[in-house]
Amino acid sequence: MNGDENPELWAFLASLHPGEILSGTVAAIERFGVFVALDDGPDHPVFPGVGFITIPELSWRRIDAASDVVRVGQRVSCEFLQFDDWNGEARLSLRAMQPDPFAVFAEGVTVGRALHGQVTKVVPFGVFVRVADGIEGLVHLRELTELPVETAEGILQVGDELMVVITEIDLERRRLALSRAQRP
C-alpha cells in the first residue's frame, strides 16, 4: 500500500504529529489489537479503521484480551504514536491517556520499604508478588530462601501472602525487584 493509491489517506497520516490526541470509535477487535475509525480521518481501503492500537498500548496493566479494555462501538481518545507507512495506519496509544500506575507507585516508595504482598505467579527463577493494585515485583530465587534450591516451585504457591522488601525500583523498565522479608 502506498500514497499513490490513497493520496487522501497518506496526506491525513502525514499531517499527524506524535503526541497529538485523536478521537474515534472502536471499529473492530482482533487478537493482535484494535482498529479505530477516527473522527477526522478518511476511511481505510482495507482495514475497519485508520487508527490501530496494539495490545500493549491498550492498558498499563497486563490484559488477556483487548475486550477486557474496550468494546466495538466504544468512543476512545488516544495519543498518536506514529504513522505506520507499511499498513497505512495511525498507531495509537490508549494507555498514554492514563497516568502510569507504576510511576505513581514508585513516587511513594523507596528501596528498603517492607510491603505485604500476594504471590501471583511462580516461575523457575522466582515468584511474582502483587504489592499494590496493578503493581507486581519479582522475588528472585536467590532472594526467596537461604536454602540452596534449583527452582521456586514448591517454596510458595499462587495466592500465598508474604512480606517483601523493595531492593530495586527500575522506572525506565517499569520493574520492581523484591526480597522476601525474613521473620525475626
Overview of this protein structure:
- By secondary structure, the chain is mainly beta.
- It folds into 2 domains: 7-97, OB fold (Dihydrolipoamide Acetyltransferase, E2P) (Beta Barrel), CATH 2.40.50.140; 101-180, OB fold (Dihydrolipoamide Acetyltransferase, E2P) (Beta Barrel), CATH 2.40.50.140.
- It has helices at residues 7-14, 101-107, 141-144; strands spanning 21-30, 33-38, 51-54, 75-84, 89-93, 114-123, 126-132, 135-140, 161-170, 175-180.
- The strands form 2 sheets. The chain has a 5-stranded mixed beta barrel. It has a 5-stranded mixed β-barrel with strand order 6-7-8-10-9.
- The radius of gyration is 21 Å and the shape is elongated.
- The mean pLDDT is 92.
Question: How would a crystallographer describe the biggest sheet?
Answer: 5 strands, mixed, barrel
Q: What strand line-up does the widest sheet have?
A: 1-2-3-5-4
CATH fold description of the largest domain: OB fold (Dihydrolipoamide Acetyltransferase, E2P)
Query: Separation of termini?
Result: 66 Å
Helix-strand blueprint:
Elements: H1 7-14, E1 21-30, E2 33-38, E3 51-54, E4 75-84, E5 89-93, H2 101-107, E6 114-123, E7 126-132, E8 135-140, H3 141-144, E9 161-170, E10 175-180
Parallel strand pairs: 3-5, 8-10
Antiparallel strand pairs: 1-2, 1-4, 2-3, 4-5, 6-7, 6-9, 7-8, 9-10
